[in-house]
Amino acid sequence: MTFWKHPAVLIAAGAIAGAAVGLIVGEPAGELKVFGDVFIRLVQMAIVPLVMASVVVGTGSLAGAGTGRLAARTVGWMLGFSLISALLAWVLAATLRPGAGIDLSGVADPGLDASAAEATTWQDTLLGFVSTNVFEAMSAGSMIPVIVFSVLFGLALNRYVATSGNRLVLELATQLQSVLLGMIRLVMLIAPIGVFCLLAALTGTVGASVVLSGLAYLGTTALGVAILTVLFVVVVSLRTGLNPLRLPAHLAEQTAVAVTTTSSAVTFPTVLRTAIERIGVSPRIANFTLSLGMTMGSYGAVLNYMIVVMFLAQSGDMQLGVGQIVLGMALAILLNMGTITVPGGFPVVAMFLATTMGLPLEAVGLLIAVDWFTGILRTFLNVNGDTVVAMLVSHAEGELDREVYAGARRASTEDAPSDASPSDALPSGALPSASDAPPSSPSAAAEPRPALATSTTSA
Predict the structure, then answer these.
(1) What is the total count of domains within the chain?
(2) Which keywords accompany this UniProt record (predicted)?
(3) What is the rounded CA–CA span in Å between residue 330 and residue 450?
(4) pTM over 0.90, yes/no
């Protein structure tokens, strides 16, 4: 694929052309909005069944070495860092207000403001998590009850498969997920046209502030990534006592692969090799924690998705209550857990968040247009954050080789069985998370991931 035919380049070109047309033509460019809305609706059309299938496949196929002290420590660090990422995103977005430059209060559906301002008790909120009719929830696009139903269905299916050995329903759900992902890929073929129309209409209606808001959104995300990177280095240095100045050189190779592919799955073999050969993490810990990190350790995605929630709310001049902010954080974290992964790229996730929380969709096209850049930031933090977790867990388990980290001894990897293989850590039917990869990035299909053993030789 040549550079000029790459989907990311085409989407970027569509965004630039759309913004230029909007600035030149002005308000008449708003007539193009209907074509952008068609693109949005095509993506929305697959959200409910895709989320259901993904959750059912994830929970229904959980198996293997996912229990015990190792799992508890790994999941504890991942959830802790994810929560910090969500909190930091809220603080940064509330302080810097990247979406405030776009005033969509007169463009967005007036019903959104009314629904956001509608007072509800905590009892009403809790009851809203469960629907008496899942088909009614599906038709209304109420995602929380759909997810609750899918999790319960997946857990019941997991027990059924374990006791009967019959995987027919699980395989049907897996095949349905694959077909729906194929639908998303087909829809993304017209993404450059859809983004062109959305940006032309938005710029023609709102003006040049669209460009400034896009830059503010990127800047807020980049600042969050920088702060979290420093936090990760400080935490791992204090907990392990290792020299933090050696860490950048150790992580250089995997960082280069991450930012050029914007895919954690493609970067996984490099991350695994780096953890064992350069960092000194034991193969047992590396295989388990890094594999689990592909579906639970997306700290960059959690940060980005919470900023998206705040950005969309600010663009519609909506004030989110405490309950809505907590819900946004929870959704951002759950979207990156192995049981509630939404494959299909950023457009699906952004529209899922907007639909679930009743946020305006008008600015989603702008976020899609710059997602190649945010994808780089997300993947950078995702893969390096996973390595930090592997170091923390390996240190706690007494399996971190300090001589390897210091360069006094070099570890080498070779294919061999291991106590905790990646296939044990990941659900057998689940796809690797696409939460860090924009829809235009190279394929995020997982490469073969051998369990690795280590032997050491003098440097």
Answers:
(1) 1
(2) Cell membrane, Membrane, Transmembrane, Transmembrane helix, Transport
(3) 33
(4) no
